[in-house]
């Protein structure tokens, strides 16, 4: 995929960052000061992120198996990409970066911030470990593999059957009309219907999913690559979203909710439905999971899909190799071979409920909703996750536009306007 950011653009963006305030004591800027016998890994795993305990345990095992090799783990949250870019500009970047393919990272390989790993993947005999669909997702339009694929995720809708039963809804809604009817019954019982983080990325993804109700995959790719929401089928999707929103399908004041408030509402049974990726499904309490089903988003008449829809992605976390990492490539190879081992992968599935972009027969037995989402298969239709196609400069403006979109009373024409405005200058 052609880059949307030039090398000059990357340097200009990075040069304007407030490095002193953005970087902590475990920052990546110190990475290049480590001795050649220290592998520096930069990750979001290590605090409260799902899978962190398993990851830290894996690092301990790796150190024990490789006593002559030190591993330094740098941890950042949502600001990881910005922190990494700053360290790269100073040529002090870590050797390996664990992050998703999204927003800023889409341009990294193209501008030389990270390297094409295709040769390493083949030379180390690890290609066969990767699901073909995951390898396709991490390969750009020039045939370069941006990173070693690792985490994936399913993104179905979670339905609390007990709350639906309490409201007199006798089955999981499969159509828009059934969803609107269910929302009315739930509200009369004081239960929020669909909770969603309308003020962050969770709302942006659900909005994109609903808009695609009448779009084929190729049409959806065009819409999200160009920001052209004016086609007939895209406008139908916008109108369907507005119809559902103004009928009260979404929780009150959804435009101000976040992913955290969304999961809290669902997990405390204040809301009956949520759009939940695997990491959210893994956090549903056992007493709630016992009476929760997972499925797709209900369809409208004339939809381009024959079954309710879900999102799915294989680009949640990959292992990116930096230019500094190529100077320690033997250590990087040992680390990646270890992380790709069946026993390591299985622990992430069993202990953390993570979906993987790698081949494995292990099942998330302690995470029944994650396992149920893995089994959905042909019961649902998959729509396009827009992350790989949205220009990086439009990513955050689209989230702002999402909040406006979830504000009740906003017309379909206005929703289209704010979405298209997010692309101006992209």
From TrEMBL:
- Which segment of the chain is annotated as a signal peptide? 1-30
Annotated keywords: Signal
Q: What InterPro entries does the entry give? A: Bact_solute-bd_prot1, SBP, TAT_signal
PANTHER family, sorted: ABC TRANSPORTER SUBSTRATE-BINDING PROTEIN (PTHR43649:SF30), ARABINOSE-BINDING PROTEIN-RELATED (PTHR43649)
Q: What is this protein called?
A: ABC transporter substrate-binding protein
Q: Write down the species.
A: Streptomyces aureus
């Amino acid at each position: 995929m052609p880059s949307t950011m030039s090398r000059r653009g990357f340097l200009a963006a990075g040069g304007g960052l407030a490095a002193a305030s953005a970087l902590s004591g475990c920052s990546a800027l110190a990475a290049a000061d480590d001795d050649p016998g220290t592998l520096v890994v930069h990750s979001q795993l290590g605090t409260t992120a799902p899978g962190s305990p398993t990851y830290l345990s894996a690092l301990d095992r790796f150190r024990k198996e490789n006593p002559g090799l030190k591993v330094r783990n740098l941890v950042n949250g949502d600001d990881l990409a910005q922190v990494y870019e700053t360290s790269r500009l100073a040529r002090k970047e870590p050797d390996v970066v664990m992050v998703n393919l999204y927003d800023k990272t889409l341009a990294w390989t193209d501008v030389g911030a990270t390297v094409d790993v295709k040769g390493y993947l083949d030379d180390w005999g690890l290609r066969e470990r990767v699901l073909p669909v995951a390898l396709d997702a991490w390969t750009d339009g020039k045939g370069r593999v941006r990173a070693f694929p690792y985490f994936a995720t399913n993104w179905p809708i979670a339905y609390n059957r007990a709350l639906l039963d309490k409201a007199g809804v006798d089955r999981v809604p499969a159509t828009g009309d059934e969803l609107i009817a269910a929302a009315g019954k739930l509200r009369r019982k004081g239960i929020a219907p669909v909770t969603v983080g309308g003020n962050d990325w969770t709302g942006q993804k659900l909005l994109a999913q609903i808009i695609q109700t009448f779009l084929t995959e190729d049409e959806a790719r065009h819409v999200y690559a160009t920001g052209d929401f004016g086609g007939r089928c895209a406008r139908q999707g916008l109108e369907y979203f507005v119809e559902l929103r103004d009928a009260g399908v979404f929780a009150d004041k959804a435009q101000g909710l976040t992913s955290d408030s969304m999961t809290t509402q669902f997990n405390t049974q204040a809301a009956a439905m949520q759009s939940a990726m695997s990491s959210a499904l893994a956090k549903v309490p056992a007493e709630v999971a016992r009476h929760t089903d997972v499925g797709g988003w209900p369809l409208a008449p004339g939809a381009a899909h024959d079954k309710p829809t879900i999102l799915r992605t294989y680009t949640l976390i990959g292992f990116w190799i930096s230019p500094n990492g190529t100077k320690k490539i033997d250590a990087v190879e040992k680390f990646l071979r270890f992380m790709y081992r069946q026993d390591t992968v299985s622990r992430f599935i069993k202990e953390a409920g993570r979906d993987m972009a790698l081949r494995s027969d292990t099942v998330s037995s302690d995470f029944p909703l994650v396992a149920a989402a893995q089994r959905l298969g042909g019961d649902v239709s998959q729509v396009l996750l827009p992350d790989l196609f949205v220009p990086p400069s439009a990513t955050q403006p689209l989230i702002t536009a999402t909040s406006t979109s979830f504000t009740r009373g906003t017309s379909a024409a206005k929703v289209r306007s704010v979405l298209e405005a997010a692309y101006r200058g992209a």
